[in-house]
Specification:
The protein is mostly helical. It has one domain. Helices cover 62% and strands 0% of the residues. The protein contains 14 helices and no strands. It has helices spanning 5-12, 19-30, 32-46, 50-59, 61-64, 66-83, 88-101, 108-129, 136-152, 162-176, 181-196, 202-211, 215-221, 228-246. The two termini are 18 Å apart.
Length: 304
């Protein structure tokens, strides 16, 4: 295989019909490291919305059991991408996601915002730090994938295009980012978790992570702004990495989040149905896997 062979395959596919196949290639062959980092940043952004950050603080999942919450979130999202919406594994993962969310009073607007981060933040990360830019096919497929995931989760008024996802995110953050002490505790715990993975390099990783936060996030969490020189050094290092990755041969074997070294809680394997938390359901709530009429589209003949 040559370096751009996966992109050539992507461009032969239909981003509306074959969105799962395209997004799976982007996620597990072309940009597995970048998308992992971007999704970490995406979830981090959600804490700056006080209604989200406050709820996460109240559940204590991200403050008292940060590694497990990180593992479970990554593995559940990863399962759907790897197996698809119609496979037993994918349906079980979505059912677990729905069971957890429906145990709390979460607004549709907050749910939709979180969904928007999964599209907007990876696109923007790869535009800045990826070894190549995303094709329009990949952006359209990413939007189609998360539209489908959102409908399975019962989210209403989902954006239709990748630009609409980004516009929705920007408008929601401008209207809702703000200070909350519980959200700050969640943000601190997440930084502690990620820095702790690197042992003696933890202070360096913490500083680098802070340098990647934009001013709106820093203001919401009341963090001090990193020195310009630190920001420049971190962003330059990521671009140097991208130039090096561009010279590597293409990844022949898919790499999924379950293979990442940051997943530490399941050395002997895991069962999808046992991931996550099991809070008491709200009265009248449910935990359906919502049927979606066009969900099988991404699993068409071209999908693997």
């Amino acid at each position: 295989m040559r370096r751009y062979d996966w992109l050539k395959e992507i461009l032969r596919l239909d981003p509306e019909r074959d969105f799962l196949r395209i997004h799976r290639i982007t996620y597990s062959h072309e940009f597995p490291w970048d998308i992992t980092r971007a999704l970490e940043l995406a979830l981090y952004r959600t804490y700056a919305v006080p209604s989200i950050g406050r709820l996460l603080a109240e559940t204590a999942e991200l403050t008292d059991r940060a590694q497990k919450r990180y593992d479970d979130t990554a593995l559940l999202l990863d399962t759907v991408i790897e197996h698809g919406f119609d496979a037993d594994e994918g349906r079980t993962a979505i059912r677990r996601i729905n069971q957890m969310h429906r145990s709390y009073d979460i607004s549709n607007e907050d749910m939709r915002y979180v969904l928007c981060t999964f599209v907007a933040v990876p696109i923007r990360w790869i535009e800045k730090y990826g070894w190549r830019r995303l094709s329009e096919h990949e952006k359209r497929a990413m939007a189609a994938y998360y539209r489908t995931l959102g409908r399975h989760m019962g989210i209403r008024d989902i954006p239709q295009t990748h630009q609409e996802f980004m516009d929705c995110l920007d408008a929601y953050e401008e209207a809702h980012f703000g200070w909350d002490p519980g959200a700050r505790r969640v943000a601190d715990a997440s930084l502690d978790l990620m820095a702790g993975w690197y042992g003696p390099l933890a202070p360096v990783v913490r500083g680098a992570s802070m340098a990647l936060l934009d001013d709106a996030l820093l203001t919401a969490f009341r963090y001090d702004r990193p020195r310009p020189a630190v920001r420049t050094a971190v962003r330059t290092a990521l671009k140097v990495r991208a130039n090096a990755v561009r010279l590597l041969p293409p990844r022949r074997t898919a790499h999924f989040a379950r293979q990442n070294p940051e997943i530490k809680g399941y050395p002997n394997g895991y069962r999808i149905a046992e991931l996550g938390t099991f809070p008491a359901p709200r009265r009248g709530g449910g935990c359906p896997v919502h049927p979606v009429g066009d969900a099988p589209a991404g699993e068409g003949p071209a999908a693997s």
